[in-house]
Amino acid sequence: MEHNDTSSASSSRPLDLPHTLEDKKIKALPPACYYISDFITEEEEKAILDKVNTAPKARWRQLTHRRLQTWPSDLVKNTLLDARPLPDWLEQPVVARLLSIPLSDSQPENMFHDSPHQRPNHVLINEYPPNTGIMPHKDGGAYHPVVCTVSLGSALCLNLYKSKEDGALDLEPVWRILQEPRSLLITTADLYTEYLHGIEPIATDVELSEKTIVNWDLLRSPELYKDGLNQRRTRISLTYRDVLKVSKLGNKLGPMFKCP
Questions:
Q1: For 228-248, what is the mean pLDDT?
Q2: Among 29, 138, 178, 247, which one has the highest count of C-beta atoms within 10 angstroms of its own C-beta?
Q3: What global pTM score does this model have?
């Protein structure tokens, strides 16, 4: 059973909010990983992108091939010093919807019910132009093991990797997830702690099919990839997590610890 959010009334396409997350589980992956293809509307996507793109220049951190923003601030020694709430445009509609969807009929709680703050308190915004990716990595111990990623602007493949018995990284992905614009991907449990994730620095995702993409049956528009290709455009990702350690010390030490 699926329902439409009332805030999507003006959108050209309805939302795809499930009755429970169980309805959107990626069955080919270890539990629990979920994919919702239409988590926000086109209008909401545009509004968020406008906020991202008009953020003060000081908000962007420039890396070698890409740039990112952190809200409300960076972490210092795995601790969030700035305890201010997220800005409204990152709270609504995303956080409200995240907290409104129960895990299953037998588990009416949302996915943050056992996190320290029972909601996301940190957002990392990454910009991925074509030919840009990120090396396979784990997110580390600073966060509660629930990662919620909203994709904006373009689709791309997220690769999941497993280390070999000797500890070396197996460079062949174990699984591939196609993340469409306006979609939500939630990874938890073993997928957070045991597997690495990364994005290849390519302009075109290739060999896309129901045999190679684990969330193929949950995609909004699999017909767009019937030739097995996805031509990337610039993609913005919003990654919502709950930082375990929060200190109000940064609020007392002044603006040196804060982003504008």
A1: 95
A2: 178
A3: 0.89
